[in-house]
Amino acid sequence: MTEALIFSLLVGIAVGFSAGYLGSIMVLERMALVGDALSHVSLPGLALGFLYNFNPFFGAFAFLFTSAVVIWHLGRVTKLPFETLVGAMFTLALAVGILIVPEPELLEALFGNITNVSLLDLAIAAVVSVTVVLLTRRIFKKIVLSLISEELAVSHGVNVERNNLLYLLLVSLVVAIGIKITGTLLVGFLVVTPAAAARTMSSNLSRYSILSGVFGAVSSFVGIMSASSLNMPPGPLVVLTGVAIFLVVIARKLISSSHS
Fold this sequence. Notes:
- The longest helix is centred in the middle third of the chain and has 30 residues, at 119-148.
- This protein has a single domain (3-254), classed as Orthogonal Bundle (ABC transporter involved in vitamin B12 uptake, BtuC).
- The protein has twelve helices and no strands.
- α1 (3-28) runs parallel beside α7 (119-148), α1 runs antiparallel to α11 and α4 (56-78) packs antiparallel against α5.
- By secondary structure, it is mainly α.
């Protein structure tokens, strides 16, 4: 096992767990498509990283961070749903990104690359993943309360708008580091499918969020190992692994229901 593969696996486990954990809120909020659409906003930032030879993570996060703030502000002003604003933003970013990204790096930008993961990538992934999990855990119950009733949340001292902004920024961080593994087209999977699988297995919020992270980590690990063995882009195989987990969970639930 090469050093690059070890780094890739560690990055994948960290990113997969944090993305799944964060995605547990997204599934509860019924905003699954928001995570997928937001991932495409990073493409122009990736393109700039490739063009000017700096770490594409920083370019991706800069565009995601700016977009998250703009979307949050427009949501406050216009009262339009997040999914509407994200949809408009992602189509613009996707078009611009595809036009300016260098052709040799286009496949990597869209589907990920495990061959050039460095120690810096691992350090960034570790710090970001730990930060995302800790902050998500801190706001988890507050966001769930605001989902039940914003008025009730406000009466309990919850700053709903600040938590929404923080949540969008955390999604931006996870998407930016997840692009290395699955690419812009598929990174939305990491914050949706593991959480969807976990949701069918647990009604306990704490267990549900942890299980979402575990499914995300397993999907990344198995997908990256398979990609290394088959010499294929990791993104599609990470997704296929996660979908397989989801189908097994659904089948288990259907069998259990038929026996009860």
